[in-house]
Design a protein that fits this description.
amino acid binding, Rossmann fold, 4-stranded parallel β-sheet, Asp/Orn_carbamoylTrfase_sf, transferase, carboxyl- or carbamoyltransferase activity, Aspartate carbamoyltransferase catalytic subunit, alpha/beta
């Protein structure tokens, strides 16, 4: 029996059993939707709030559609016109929102650690899901990538997976690495310009390098990352062209 999972902040410490359970549930819901089941009552009577301090139309819409298809009531919090722009602290905002009797918070924030802060201070009945925090983690994207790979290649322990691009600033890369390591892929490679590669100590068990051709040779899966300009020091890279050349 998989352990109860109240919050989803990172994939890093999940067991293989829990991760596989999440992927199996996601696949079952995908199949049900493909066969015409557009709505289930799993979250009927529950209220989910999208709390996006970083704008992302696709991610927020994906969470909203998922919650609505599970029959939850969904509230999209308008950060631009909220009291957080008038000096209200994050903790004040959290307590104000909890007074609305929420069941789940979907949190996206530019600062790493914000969802974990919410977990520490939220009421015991409120679940927190990380929709991306700084360069720390994006667990639902990691789950999506793992599910996509598993749909096409069932024997994950025989795969070589290569992640290319701005690995240094990418929360998706970190969650992908956690997911694939838990699932036991044979080899994980990280490739990008030297300025966009993290320290090897941060990614134990991964091969790091800046030779794109060598990295993709023999790969079963290649994941391409965009430049995370919003999390970069302005002078880190001279030009986009140099990055494009380095990553093919």
């Amino acid at each position: 029996m998989h352990p109860h999972l109240r919050h989803l902040i990172t994939l890093q410490n999940l067991s293989a059993e829990t991760l596989l359970h999440l992927l199996d549930r996601a696949e079952a819901l995908r199949v049900a939707s493909a066969h015409g089941t557009r709505k289930l009552d799993l979250l009927h009577g529950r209220t989910v709030l999208n709390l996006f301090f970083e704008s992302s139309t696709r991610t927020r819409t994906s969470f909203e559609l998922a919650a609505r298809r599970l029959s939850a009531d969904v509230v999209n919090f308008d950060i631009a016109n909220s009291s957080t722009n008038k000096g209200e602290t994050l903790l004040d905002t959290l307590h104000t929102l909890e007074a609305m009797h929420l069941d789940a918070l979907i949190v996206r924030h530019r600062e790493s650690g914000t969802p974990e802060f919410m977990v520490r201070h939220a009421a015991s009945g409120v679940s927190v899901i990380n929709a991306g925090d700084g360069h720390h983690a994006h667990p639902t994207q990691g789950l999506l990538d793992a599910l996509t790979v598993r749909q096409h290649r069932r024997n994950l322990d025989a795969l070589t997976v290569t992640i290319c691009g701005d690995v240094l600033h990418s929360r998706v890369a970190r969650s992908d690495v956690h997911a694939f390591q838990i699932l036991g892929v044979r080899e994980l490679r990280l490739c990008g310009p030297q300025a966009l590669l993290p320290n090897a100590e941060e990614f134990p068990g991964c091969m790091l390098g800046d030779d794109f051709d060598a990295a993709v040779a023999g790969s079963d899966v290649i994941i391409m990352l965009r430049l995370q300009k919003e999390r970069m020091i302005a002078t880190l890279l001279p030009t986009k062209t140099r990055t494009s050349r380095a990553t093919g």
